[in-house]
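Re: the 276-residue chain
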Amino acid sequence: MRFHHTLDFPRVACGRASADIGSGKLGWVNPRVRTWASRAALILAALAVLATSKPEGWSVEATIVGPRKARAGSALRLEIESSKDVEILTTGTPGSYQDKRVTPCLVPWIGVTKRICVLPPAATIDKIVITGDCGGSRSGCPPPKGSFVNVTSSEVPYWTDTVTSTMSATLPSHGPKFIASFFVVEVDGAPAATVKLVVSDAASGAHIYTEEQACSIHAGSGTLATCRLIVYDDLVKPSRAVKVVAEATGWGECATGATSPCAPPKTLGIRSLRID
């Protein structure tokens, strides 16, 4: 799957513009500036649509018993009980593809059963919430009866491990409505994981692009977590040969009695690196 937009903007040729702006002529515009300006216009238009059309939802914020940030040499361990899956909003660490503010828990939510989540050591908790929609209502609604979220945090010693995977690739060509491609990295073997993707030119080795992201677990995937890293066409042109290095970093809680940094269990692995 490739990221695409459905808004139909008029095509504009690079070079000199024929339109007048105010009393002066618009001169030559750098094609890269035009590309970013077009992207900005697209994003602003989309945000304007969302701002005027998105229905109100409900939310319940947890009262967190315990620290919101771990001291040096420790990570946060969260014990979470909730009536639905939570969003853990943090700062100081890469966020997920769906929401850059969210650090995913890689233990799946199963009903109201208590689960243990470990955050990357640099994470600071902003808030932990459960949310839902109001069936299309734009005036909001109360949470469903029985909605709850309880969180207890504590500092624990942690292990960390890093693994890499490399591939040579040529981004596929696609139609004008597509503006980007995805690199998909699947990771397992850690209670928390991020992936840093580094793209360089295959021939010269020149650096092109770097992005880092927290991986998310999906229903039915067991412990397999996925990072989806977007690469825009104006950064890496379709049909350009590139070298791609994915570096996965994982964290987990040390065994009882151990101190940081304890030896990792060597379970962390990159199971798949592909273009989607």
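Residues 1-37, 49-53 have pLDDT under 50 and may be disordered.
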